[in-house]
Thiamine-phosphate synthase (Planococcus notacanthi), 217 residues
Amino acid sequence: MKFSDKPSIYFIMGSRNSGDRNPFEVLKAALEGGITHFQLREKGEGALSGTELLAFALRCQLLCNHYKVPFIINDSVELACQIGADGVHIGQEDLSASQARKLIGKEKILGVSVHSSEEARKAVKDGADYVGMGPVFGTTSKADAKKPAGVEGILTVKKEFPELPVVGIGGITPGNASLVWAAGVSGIAVISAITESKDIAGQVAALQASSKEGIRK
Ligand code: 3NM
C-alpha cells in the first residue's frame, strides 16, 4: 500500500473541488481511470466540517477501498484515526511529523509537504514515507500557495535522499508532467488536471503515460 516502484498518480480533492459535478462521481471516475493514491483535502469556502465531513470522508473511503487505492487524509490526524484511513498528509504548519507518526502508528502512510532539503531531512527523521514538493508550476487550487518553484528543490532533495519517495505538486498536467518525472519523482499529485477534465479516465491515462516520457530514477 505504500509507495512502490510504480509511478504514482496521486489525486487530491475535497467537496469544493468538483465544480458542478458530484464529487463522488469524479472520484469514482478517477479510481476507474487508475489513480494510485487519493487524498481528501477539505479546504476553502464552504468546506465541510463535523459530521458532514465525517460522512463525506466515509463515502470517499468506501470508494477507495473498493478500488484498493490508499485513502489519505490531509491535516486531520484525528479524522484519519477516527475512521481508520490509510494515511495522513501534513504541512509544515500542522502538528509535527513525529507527533503524527506517534498518533497513526508505524503501518500507516505519512506524507509531509516540504520546501527545502532542511525540511526534507526533518521529515525523514520524523518518519515520513514520502514528501510532497511544490508548487512546481503555478496553481490556482491552493489559496496560500508559494511561488512556483520548478523542479530544482526536487533535484536537490533526490540527490541527498535518493531512496525517499518525492511527489511533485502544483499546476501539473499531462503536458508538463514529463519535466517533473525527469527530476526523479515517484509520483505526481494533481487536483485540477483531474477535477476539470471532461474525460477523467483518459486524463489519468495521459498522466500515467507522461511518466514514460520522463526519465524516472
Ligand atoms: N499543495 P493543482 S500546490 C494542494 O505547493 C496543493 O504544496 C501545493 O492543485 C503545494 O493540481 C497544491 O490544481 C494545489 O495545481 C495543487
User: Anything to note?
Assistant: The beta strands are 8-13, 37-40, 71-74, 87-90, 109-114, 130-133, 166-169, 187-190.
